[in-house]
Amino acid sequence: MRVVKTVVSLLVCGLVLEGCGYVVLPPEASAEASTASRGWAAIATGIGPSEQSSVRIDVTIRNDSGDWSSMEAATDRPAVLTAGDGATTDCDIVRVGTGGHRLAPGFQMRGYVGGTKAEPVSELIRVECPVAEVTPGSRLAIDYTYATGEYNYYDPDANTVASRLEVDLDAVTSDPTYPIGEPIDGLVQPADLTITAINGVELTLIGRERTDSGLEFTWQTNNAGEYPSSVHIGNPPVIGNDGILYGLYQSPDIASVPITPPAERASWTTEVDVPADVGGLYIPLPVESKKQRLFVYYVLDITDS
Amino acid sequence: MSTAIALRLSRYRRFAPLAVTIILFSLTYAYGAMAYEGMRDPQVFLNLFRAAPFLLISAIGMTFVILSGGIDLSVGGVVALTTVASAALLRAGGIDPWIIMLLMLVMGITIGAAMGFFITFLKVQPFIATLAGLWVARGLCFWISDDAIPIHNRLYDVLAQTRILIPGLADPTTKQGEFISVMVVVELVVLVVAIFVAHFMRFGRTVYAVGGNEHSARLMGLPVNRTKMLVYTLNGFCSALAGIALSVDVSSGHGLYAVGMELTVIAAVVIGGTLLTGGVGYVFGTLFGVLLILVVQTLIQFNGQLSSWWTPIVVGLLTLIFIGIQSLLATEASRRPAFLRSLGRAKAADAATGERAL
Questions:
Q1: DSSP labels for B276-328?
Q2: How far is CA B114 from CA B8, B66, B143, B226, B229, in A?
Q3: Among A16, A24, A294, the residue to mutate for chain B (most B Cβ within 10 A)
Q4: Which of B84, B89, B155, B237 has its CB 3.0 to 4.6 Å from that of B253, i.e. a possible disulfide?
Q5: From chain B, which residues contact A within 8 Å (Cβ)?
Q6: Overall pTM surpassing 0.80 (yes/no)
Q7: Cross-chain residue pair B163–A227, CB shorter than 8 Å
Q8: How do A108-109 and A264-273 pair as beta strands?
Q9: Nearest Cβ partner of B301 from A26, A155, A228?
Q10: Of A232, A225, A215, whose CA–CA distance to A287 is shortest?
């Protein structure tokens, strides 16, 4: 009986040891954040009176992080205006951010669409300070956080860094060039680029059309694989030569997309409201790639639209 | 000869709904494999188990409840509450994730026991008591958090992303090939334990007796109240475990998770051959009820042209069909010749005597 027990124990141990080879643990998550980046930069584009009898400072922000990035001013802290004589004033109205979207590196913007889906509101990036005027030598400090890289729905706060924008109010640039502040070679892709998305499905923008309210894009997926697959891209926004990022932000996994059956194609449309007189447009495009709910970004050139 | 055949058919009649489910599942999968090359991949079959461990775990608990003649509408709420509470505790930090899982199971057991108490001792209708449980659980979800809470925890990552390769279908050296997840192992362990409890333990037999005829069970001296309490407590445990499985699966917690899940779970149990009136059914059938629902979803995905709403439509139709089959069998049983019924009673008496002797 003792022999049998020993043999059984050895067999079980052998099976367990052999079985360990069949268990594949996930890799440890990398804790690296892009803290080495320069973050975002900001310049003042206009200073004047606001509706609330205070001073309004229009700001343009540029993505200098070297990667795709979204940014938002800290909601629990005011911006601080430091006058030339060192006096400080808290500025509570701070509308500084990308509206949730990620912007390509080197791109700059001066507004985004906020509000709700039912009532979208165009927000110009600005800070309003309760002072009579901005004296020479004044500076504006804005605390903010920015996230860089691919967007992971399951880890939305990955690579998020807190930083501070310093705006020199003596140097007002009234006419910056939008949306590209610093061109980066190879960043902007042609509109008809074939993008390899999740599960090897190919995504292509096959049509774009001006409508009464803006633009309608037609997307097509080609699934050469054996399994049905869907590629989430959300409702891609556009940014043009007026520096405003059009399109209310929603997580790109929310908008429904058709399933592409194996060895077949599927197509669908997305729309974005944009004034007819805005040209020089680009699409910052999140594409579900590599694994579920992980979005890799591309910028498509539709300046001829 | 004809009497022998009739007897044999009569003996196996109770397996009819289960057999129909297994045959239907097999035919559906076979059709999919013929129509879509991708469905012939063993991984697609394994994915049926990977897709929704929470559904099977919850359906197993519900099987016991329905076998006892009850119903539990709170499962979706308890599942969602488990996801939110565990995500909130993990976010707060300072507590080991294993302790949090244990706390969630205790929470599920407590909620189940509370509903069982109302149903058993205060004679509240199971429908009402568990509906109240659903509301309370959903309300608590939003009391904890209005929004989804992401889970960033190594243990949850390991449970969600560890691949257990299948010998013969995968290469352990390259770590490539067909695989299942840790939660599949958990759901299969729960299934095996549930089958053992239902068919080889006194508690399981009492559940069948209570569901078949509660009054008779009382007269026989069976612990009806304790059994009913335990059934709802067990289902609370299963709901919490299902909630843990769901939170592992989606790495987050939200009060809007598992909305309407209770009805899918009940449908899976009914499709698996368990009589809604109680006393008849098999935990093993529930497995195929769940698999049938998931294979319908898979077929719709492979088709790619159909709306995802076809899944509830098909599940609804299947539920109706299976309730129809159950009703037919019940009517048929009441019309059986008297000598077959008496023979059946004699056999049942023999079995009971044997059991007592054992």
A1: TTSS---HHHHHHHHHHHHHHHHHHHHH-SS-TTHHHHHHHHHHHHHHHHHHH
A2: 44, 18, 20, 13, 9
A3: A24
A4: B84
A5: 36-38, 41, 44, 150, 152, 154, 157-158, 160-167, 170, 172, 175, 179, 250-252, 301-305
A6: no
A7: no
A8: unpaired
A9: A228
A10: A232
Residue B327: count of CB within 10 angstroms of its CB: 13
Residue of B43, B149, B175 to mutate for A, most A C-beta atoms under 10 A: B175
Name the architecture of domain A188-301: Sandwich (2.60)
Report the share of chain B in percent with pLDDT over 70.
Answer: 88
**Residue among A42, A250, A29 at smallest CA distance from A159:** A29
CA distance B188 to B194: 10
Give per-residue pLDDT as tens, B189-234. 999 999 999 999 999 999 999 999 999 999 999 999 999 999 999 9
- What's the pLDDT tens digit per position in A145-200? 999 999 988 777 778 888 889 999 998 988 899 999 988 888 999 999 999 999 89
User: Cβ of B197: how many Cβ atoms within 10 Å?
Assistant: 17
Locus of tokens 């700001």: A59
- Ranges of each domain in chain A: 7-168, 188-301
| CA nearest to B307 within chain A | A258
What is the structure's pLDDT at A7? 77
Percent of chain B beyond pLDDT 90? 59
Q: Before A179, cis peptide (omega within 30)?
A: yes
